Amino acid sequence: MLFHRDLGMGEHVQALLQHQAMKNSPWKRCQHIIFVPGLFHLKMAAMDAIWHAFLHLVALRGDETYLLRNIAILRPMDIGHYQSKPGFRQMHQLITYSGICQWLNCWLKEVVKIDPRIQSLEAFAATEPTFAQLKEIADILAQNYIATHTVIKARRKPGSLCNMQHENVSILNKYLLLHDIRRVEMCIIAWILVFKATGKPKYANHMTEFLMNIHFVYLEGLGRAIRYSILVNLTGKKGKFHTVDWCMEFNNLFMKVVNGGKYSNHTIDYILLESLLVQVYRNLHENFQRHFLHTHLSTRKSKADMVKTFGKLCAYFEKYRPHKLQLGRSSKFCIDELIDVGHSLMEKGEDELGREEHQGELDGKSLSTLDDLVVELRM
Fold this sequence. Notes:
The chain is mainly alpha-helical. It is built from 18 helices and 4 strands. The strands form 2 sheets. A two-stranded parallel sheet has the order 1-2. A two-stranded antiparallel sheet has the order 3-4.
């Protein structure tokens, strides 16, 4: 039985398995229960890690390329909220919108390099480039505008030969791309290292154990079943996959908030009573909308028209040129490459674990590392 929830529930499941470990049958040992971490809660943790790395730093607030400057254009009334502790929805919108504008600026800069006569992306689109041309430019963007090992080499040079703000922006671009999870397991490996670097060892350890179990512990059929059940598509439409824990949270919204009663009626007994009728209520609402020709009414909000706002943010990037290499441009703070920091912490922990095992304090525990997973996934 696959059990999808957040890490808090995962700890309860683990405690149950440890408590039942001495029983005399697989059923009593609860071996049929397998915990699968929810990717929706993983994404929430990733948003918090980005906030700690790029928004929580007071020293960066004087730089023109600081992420908070983007908020001043995208959400000028919410600057204080983003500085304190924004929610998941606010961080999700910021990363999505800021990432779009960052890459539009990178595309414009690279297109102008190819053909100086083109001074806008609209003019470039009018030339009707082929897919092969777009792919070639995208490869160049991935090599030149995302932090790689060259950032470490650049930071070893004197300050007059460095561009610290450009280096910080290239690191930001790297983690904005990881926010859009397409190849899930490969992104999880990167986020494990980020969690380790940003003080989230619980998430790092749980996700590492989860991947290790899938690829090295569970039988092949069980591992395949878990991988195919991480995401579900309830509508059957293209690109409409959701994580299982997101669907559960969406159901909790209707049970506890929409139909859970108010004031003195908002009790556990009332929520349990009404939970059986949640789908009935939703069907009734859909019937009313359909029969009274109110098909245009919906609880789903329309997408915000961000064209003008994106134009302002792109104009700001054109003014301060965060993606242009200007030697000698300094920054008040040097952002760490979180993946490198996390990898060094993981290696340090494995070295300590190896010494303890050599001393006989641990019993046959596997020392499989993330490098093994990288090989397994052919990254």
